[in-house]
TrEMBL record:
Keywords, ordered alphabetically: Phosphoprotein
Pfam family for this entry, one: Response_reg
SUPFAM superfamilies linked: CheY-like
PANTHER family (UniProt xref): RESPONSE REGULATORY DOMAIN-CONTAINING PROTEIN, STRESS RESPONSE REGULATOR PROTEIN 1
Organism, as annotated: Phenylobacterium parvum
Protein name, entry field: Two-component system response regulator
Transmembrane domains' residue ranges: none
Length: 192
């Protein structure tokens, strides 16, 4: 990320969803450090759905694994059932599990990104800025609603290529391989 670049996040309205109130506070603390001041905390998906009915958000951060309805199902609901404005809200899934199946599930439910725990402020800020600067179209088909998943050729903004965590690079390579954009032989070379 360019050290001289500035972005004002003080007016961003963010929904943070997790079944663990301490995890919500931790994430809100990180976001507060970026200058964000408007948070809606939702303990579980039911509260998140109510929040989406009552307010418009600029960003949604949700945990993946929650009892009952998980974060993947919440994003899928958001993309298919929420009102028109809420359906387009950028959504990032935060998870401790980034197996290929989890990355695929995040992609297929319509999430913009999946971030591996443990989280770091740098990675969260990079993903927020990436979403804000994204020019990916929003796709609506019979089987998928969400951001265009075909962004391999564009890749991440150039300023994010240096210093990425190894796990993030592996997760991105796995997602691309699952999407059929990259032969599995290349993924092995990328992640070795």
């Amino acid at each position: 990320m360019n050290g001289s670049a500035r972005i004002n996040l003080s007016s961003a309205n963010v929904l943070v969803v997790d079944d663990n109130p301490q995890a919500i506070e931790l994430l809100c603390g990180v976001l507060d450090g970026f200058g964000m001041r408007k948070f809606k905390r939702a303990v579980g998906v039911d509260e998140a759905k109510e929040a989406c009915a009552d307010a418009v958000f600029d960003l949604i951060l949700t945990d993946a694994q929650m009892p009952g309805v998980d974060g993947y199902e919440f994003i899928s609901w958001l993309r298919r059932s929420a009102d028109e404005q809420a359906r387009l809200t950028p959504a990032i899934i935060v998870t401790a599990h980034t197996r290929r199946s989890q990355v695929t599930k995040a992609r297929d439910c319509g999430a913009n990104f999946i971030i591996a725990k443990p989280i770091t402020p740098k990675i969260i800020l990079e993903r927020i800025i990436w979403v804000a600067q994204s020019t990916r179209m929003f796709i609506e088909t019979e089987n998928y609603i969400g951001p265009d998943r075909r962004f391999r050729k564009a890749g991440p903004p150039a300023e994010f290529g240096v210093g990425r965590r190894k796990e993030d690079a592996e997760t991105a390579a796995a997602a691309e391989a699952v999407a059929g954009n990259e032969p599995s032989s290349e993924v092995q070379e990328t992640t070795a």
